[in-house]
Every structure is written in structure tokens, then in C-alpha cells.
From TrEMBL:
Region (Disordered), start-end ranges: 72-91
Name assigned to this protein: Ribbon-helix-helix domain-containing protein
Highest rank taxon of the organism: Archaea
Biased composition (Basic and acidic residues): 76-91
InterPro entries: Arc_rbn_hlx_hlx (IPR013321), CopG (IPR002145), Ribbon_hlx_hlx (IPR010985)
Segments forming domain Ribbon-helix-helix protein CopG: 15-50
Organism from which the protein derives: Halolamina litorea
Length: 91
């Protein structure tokens, strides 16, 4: 299987494999559910589109990468602290 292969027989849809730590995946899963997305894939597509359409938000992605490293080192930051930093409501 290649790095990017067609999914569902639709030539406009490619599947991309990404390796991330289990702890970061747990955070992603919690986040997409809290934000009302229907699936992990839907949330990740939204995040990628947002990153491409709003590159000025790149600092967020850098912070996420740092957070993943901290999770791997068992240094945790609460979702409330993250929401406060980026001005998101808890609802």
C-alpha cells in the first residue's frame, strides 16, 4: 500500500497515513467529540483545511507538536489551559 492511496474508489479522495503517539491520538479523539465533529477524519480534514486557509495560525500547530512531545514525556496541560490560551469557550 502506498503512502497515499485512493479511498472509496473516488479518484478525488486519497488516504494519508500519519504516525502519532497514542497519547496525542487520545487528545485528538477527545477534542473532535467535544467540538461536535462526526468523526476523527472529519476533524482532521477541518484542521488541515484551516491550517492551509489560515497559515497565520501556524503557531497553534507548533504548540500542538510541543504538546505531543510533552505528553510523551508525561508533562500534561489541561484542556482548560489550552482553551484559555487560544480563547476558546468550554462549550
Amino acid at each position: 500500500m502506498s503512502e497515499a492511496d485512493s479511498g472509496n474508489g473516488d479518484p478525488e479522495i486519497d488516504r494519508v497515513n500519519v504516525r502519532i503517539s497514542r497519547s496525542f491520538l487520545d487528545v485528538i479523539d477527545e477534542t473532535w467529540r467535544e467540538r461536535g465533529f462526526n468523526s476523527r477524519s472529519e476533524f482532521i480534514r477541518h484542521a488541515l483545511r484551516d491550517s492551509v486557509n489560515h497559515p497565520e495560525g501556524a503557531g497553534l500547530w507548533k504548540d500542538l507538536a510541543i504538546s505531543e512531545a510533552q505528553l510523551d514525556d508525561d508533562e500534561r496541560v489541561s484542556s482548560e489551559e489550552i482553551k484559555a490560551t487560544y480563547g476558546h469557550d468550554s462549550e
